[in-house]
Design brief:
10 helices, single chain, 13% strand, 6 strands, six-stranded mixed sheet, alpha/beta, 282 residues
Length: 282
């Protein structure tokens, strides 16, 4: 039984496989012209998804036909090529074509998670007694779909991460004339307002020292997106040390979130009209 539903696994794999380079079944540099068969990419991909969902180590999910070393090598190869970010961009393009992205209202916020192994993207967490932690800065559109993500150490402030996070809008084809970015009070400051003015965006920023309203307004969607992403064990407790691998998992989860919402929302929009039922009178 797959760790994610087939309705998500198959379209995700179809797009992912289309980006993979062709590799021979046997290593052409072997002196005898033969070697162990290369483990199929589909097998490794399913093991990577298992690690992503459960958050367990590769030794635990390794099987007879796919070792933990194979998973690590293939994962580093895919991460260096940026395949998950490309799949995420394809998922956003498909959603925009079928349903349309709500780009008039954007929201940005950060989320702290554990990173017990440390690594390139980790830092001392101010809310976990100085233990190693990871922060992800997420940009979402009006309905909560993740548009871009930036990884950083848990000790990084949210405000300096706003510029690289908003830079992810360059992957989109076109933006509306009027765009409002919703931010919490952690972004309240002169540099943030200057950045939004430079980009031509309006800013709805909570004020420091003013009690937050009961409802977070249009900013609550990014909080919901964080809860969606925290459902994956590898993001709740990240043990990866390479930043490229951390980003690979972040964008892979973002692609899964976009794909799931595309299927759920298109199911109710693109449907045959139901015929009214009539009872036959005797």
């Amino acid at each position: 039984m797959p760790v994610v539903p087939i309705c998500l696994l198959e379209p995700l794999w179809d797009q992912f496989a289309a980006l993979l380079p062709e590799r021979p079944t046997f290593a052409p540099t072997h002196p005898l012209g033969c070697h162990r068969r290369r483990v199929p990419d589909r097998v490794v991909f399913e093991h990577v998804l298992a690690a992503l969902v459960h958050g367990s180590g590769y030794e635990r999910i390794a099987t007879r036909g796919c070792s933990d070393g194979t998973i690590r090598r293939r994962l580093r190869e895919w991460a260096a090529a940026g395949l998950s970010e490309q799949v995420h961009a394809l998922a956003l393009r498909a959603y925009d074509r079928m349903l349309g992205l709500e780009l008039e209202e954007l929201a940005v916020d950060g989320c702290l998670t554990k990173a017990p192994g440390g690594g390139e993207a980790a830092g001392r967490s101010p809310v976990d007694r100085g233990k190693q932690g990871l922060k992800r800065s997420v940009l979402t559109e009006g309905s909560g779909l993740p548009l871009h993500l930036v990884s950083a150490g848990a000790n990084r402030h949210d405000a300096p991460l706003l510029e690289p996070t908003l830079a992810g809008l360059n992957k989109l084809d076109e933006l509306p004339d009027e765009v409002t970015v919703h931010l919490d009070r952690g972004y309240d400051g002169g540099p943030t307002r200057a950045l939004l003015a430079e980009l031509g965006f309006d800013g709805a920023i909570s004020r420091k020292g003013v009690p937050a309203p009961v409802q977070a307004g249009s900013r609550w969607v990014v909080e919901r997106t964080h809860s969606w992403m925290n459902a994956y064990g590898k993001l709740r407790r990240c043990t990866e040390k390479l930043r490229s691998v951390v980003d690979f998992y972040l964008f892979l989860v973002a692609a899964l979130v976009v794909l799931r919402q595309l299927i759920q929302r298109a199911r109710t929009r693109y449907r045959w009209p139901t015929r009214p039922t009539t009872r036959r009178l005797k």
